[in-house]
Design brief:
single chain, 249 residues, alpha/beta, eight-stranded parallel β-sheet, 11 helices, globular, binds phosphoenolpyruvate
Length: 249
Amino acid sequence: MRNNIVAGNWKMNNDSSETEVLLTQLKSFKKPEGVRIMVAPAFTQLAQSTALLKDDAVAVVAQNINAAASGAYTGEVSASMLKGVGVHTVILGHSERRSLFHETDAGLASKVKSTLDAGMEVIFCFGEELKERKSNTHFDVVAQQIRVALFELPVSAWKQIILAYEPVWAIGTGETASPSQAQEMHSYIRSLIASKYDQATADSVSILYGGSVKPNNAQEIFAGEDVDGGLIGGASLKAEDFMAIVNAF
Ligand code: PEP
């Protein structure tokens, strides 16, 4: 059955001394049973983070990879390099990667494949922009993102996939989807997977919500039947806030 998951996306925040402070604070909290907890530091802090969290329940996740295994890709990092520093999960398709670095669903499909081929897990992010929600095309947009990036995968690959629905208009804006908007979309996503694959596969995939999740709204968002946790940006940078969200189930 699927897991409850709370993952913190640190983005381009926290140098090594800030990482040490935040992770030491996170380590000091008692972790609840039944919730997978993850943090995604910048590449430069991954080895430090896996070492610091060696005996802790918090897993370390990367924010991106290059689809190639190795070669002339200046500035890039491969899946096996991440594995080498103890990272087994990668966030792909974050809206900032899509908008600022022009990532497309077709390109993301290759990154997903490389990550899975390396035996790693993917947190695949997608979500509509405000104009798409306003024009009532948000279901079509999300369906297209998922189809192009993930629906060529064999059913067996879905064991390594976590989905993160992140409406772009809710990321870093303080505006969140209402619990019913989140639940409605998550339920739609599950039905999409069930119709392409089967109900058991759909029921086994964790679907996270991301977009201005805070300690004061996490509980009502996570209460949705198809909402299995959150991908957390801003609130993951403060240990008490992040752990309050982890404890919101
Ligand atoms: C994110 O960047 O994935 C995110 C959800 O950010 P925030 O929680 O700050 O909206």
